[in-house]
Amino acid sequence: MIRCLHLADLHLGWSFENQEIPLDKAEILQKERNLILKHAVDWAIDPKNDINFIIIAGDLFDVHTPSLSLVEYVFTELKRLEDVGIRVITVPGNHDEITYHNSVYREYGSEGRWPGTLVKNPMPKLVQKFKVKGTPIFIYSLAYTGGLTKVARLTELPKENKPGLHIGVFHASLDWTGASDRSLPLTSKALLDAGYDYVALGHIHKPRTIQIGHGLAVYPGLIGSKGFSDLGCGYMTIAKFHPQEDTKGNLYFKTNLET
Q1: What is the DSSP letter of 98?
Q2: pLDDT tens digits, residue range 146-173?
C-alpha cells in the first residue's frame, strides 16, 4: 500500500483582522493558524504514519506576495520532508497565482531552491516521476498562468501509457458551469478520458469526493478556519493506494481515503 498526504488551500498568511476582534488577538490567531503546515509535517515525518509523498494542490499561501518570514518558514518545513525522503509536490493556486511577475513562485521558485517539485508549467504535462516501494508514480499538473494557460484545450489531459500509479493534480473547478479561467474549469469527462487513478484537487473549501471511472477526484477541503463564513473541516486527507489488476491483467490502483 502507498500512502499520500493530500493538502490544499492552507491559505498561510490569512489574517483574522477583519473578523471584528482586537488586532493583537488577530495576530495571535494568524500565527497559530500558520502552524497548520508544521503540524502536518510533524505528523507526516512520524514513521508510524507511513507517508510516502505529499501533494499541495494550490493556495498554499493566501496571497501571491507573502512575507519573507512566511516564505522562509515554508521552506524550512518542506525541507524537513525532503530530509527524511518524503517527496512533496507544490502547485500554485489562484490566491497565490504564479501569473504575476512578483509572485512568490517566481521570486523564490528557481530550480533547486524550492524544496521538492514546484509546478510552473502553464499547460498540463508530466511534472514528476519517481518510485515508491518499487511502484512508478506519475504526477501530472499545471500552474494556471494568465495569458498562457489555454483553458479551452484542457479537454485532453496527458497520461503515460506505462504501468504505475497515475495522479493528476489541479487547483480547479470540477464541473462548475461558468467558472472563470482563473478558477481553472475542468470536466469529469476529461478526467475520465485521461484515466488517472487519483485526482488531487484544490480550490473548493468543502471536502468532496467524486468517483471517476476506477479512480477518485478529491477535494480535501480547507483545514483551518477563515472566519465564521468559512469554518474549515479541521482534518487532513490521506489517500491510500492499493494495486489491483483488471480482467486483462492491467495494473490499476484502488483508492481509499483516511481522515
Answers
A1: S
A2: 999 999 999 999 999 999 999 999 999 9
| Best CA proximity match to 84, nearest among 55, 43, 56 | 43
pLDDT at 93 over 80: yes
CB 253 within 8 A of CB 244: yes
**Cβ distance 86 to 170 under 8 Å?**
no
For 53, the grid coordinates are 509523498
The CA dihedral of 117, 121, 126, 132, to the nearest 10 degrees, is: 10
At residue 142, the 3 state secondary structure works out as: coil
- Residue 17 sits at φ, ψ, to 5 deg, of -65, -20
Number of continuous H segments (helices) and E segments (strands) in the chain: 5, 14
Burial profile 93-128: b = 16 or more Cβ within 10 angstroms, e = fewer: bbbbbbbeeebbbebbbeeeebbbbbbbebebeebb
Amino acid at site 56: I
